[in-house]
Amino acid sequence: MRYILLFMLFWCGIGAFFAQQTTAIPSSYVAGNASVAYDMAWLPFGNPAALGRRSSMGVSIIYENRYITRELANKAINFWLPTKLINTGLCFSHFGYSEYNEMIASLSFGRQFGDNFSLGVDMIYYTVFLSPSERYKGVFTAQVGTQVDLTDEFSLALSVFNPVFSKIKGDYAEKRLPTILSIGSLYKIRSVVNWLVQFDKEVSSPFRWATGFEYILVKELIVRVGAYGYDDFRPTLGAGLRLDSFKFDIAADYNSVLGFSVLGGMAYEF
Fold first, then answer.
1. d(Cα 14, Cα 95) in Å, to the nearest integer?
2. DSSP structure string for 98-142
């Protein structure tokens, strides 16, 4: 009975939202989930152009508990290594439980050209557990992205997930990966407030909007507030703690039907 309820929750609730993205990709702790223009960190399966702006090696982990339901949890880890020629990253994410799960792994490359322009690409392998008889099926796809600083305070960003329209074919079903175009901006206000705006368009879904503010109270503490949606309104709230090489982040959003989702992340830069 529990699995039937989870199935109904997934397809009737979060299934509608995640037509905008693959479920194995975790949400971000960025205010309002508006992360395409965010350049202060490289997030798991976020805009790969942000990888090109990293100047030190690091590792991060993220755990997301969607609607306080363990079976809908998402776990992700990523590692990045900057070099003189190009920055390289590895990322892995797992969503679901034993009866249904998805996994996604990527090898990423990013480079900054000059002081104002960065470009990146994710080479992605996505797998899904279809059934006990078919087991896992997988497919390759990609994500490309760019970030450009028009001024010291204002930046624009663009990314495309699954531009090759990959899909997984099973014996009895077919799962199409979403193809998503994301465009966004980052406006830095007096060096203490970051305003993020983002619009996403999946080929068969309505526009998704997202916006949020990040306020740097002191060097060690960040407060975030925002919202996103496309046929509903979902507020977000979060905070970040910076302690030398360690970074801790937590975020939550609220759906009026399904309740709260909570995300926590930790990163260490060497």
1. 13
2. TTEEEEEEEEEEEEEETTTEEEEEEEEEEEEEEETTTEEEEEEEE
User: Is the distance from CB of 119 to CB of 110 less than 8 angstroms?
Assistant: yes
Q: If you count them, how many residues does the chain have?
A: 270
Biggest alpha carbon distance in the chain?
58
Highest averaged pLDDT of the listed ranges 13-27, 143-157, 169-183, 199-213: 143-157
Between the alpha carbon of residue 106 and those of residues 81, 143, 187, the distances in Å are: 14, 10, 29
Please classify residue 93 by burial: count the beta carbons closer than 10 Å to its beta carbon, then call 0-12 exposed, 13-18 middle and 19+ buried.
buried
Which residues are bridge partners to 128 per DSSP?
102, 137
Place of tokens 């997301």: 64
- List CB contacts of 93: < 8 A, sequence separation 6 or more: 24, 25, 26, 44, 45, 74, 75, 76, 77, 103, 104, 105
Q: CB under 8 Å to 155, separation ≥6 — which residues? A: 37, 39, 147, 148, 149, 185, 186, 187
Q: What angle do CA 196, 200, 203 make, to 5 degrees?
A: 175
pTM across the whole model: 0.88
**Residues in contact with 84: Cβ distance below 8 Å, sequence separation at least 6, in sequence order:** none
Q: How far apart are CA 92 and CA 265, in angstroms?
A: 14
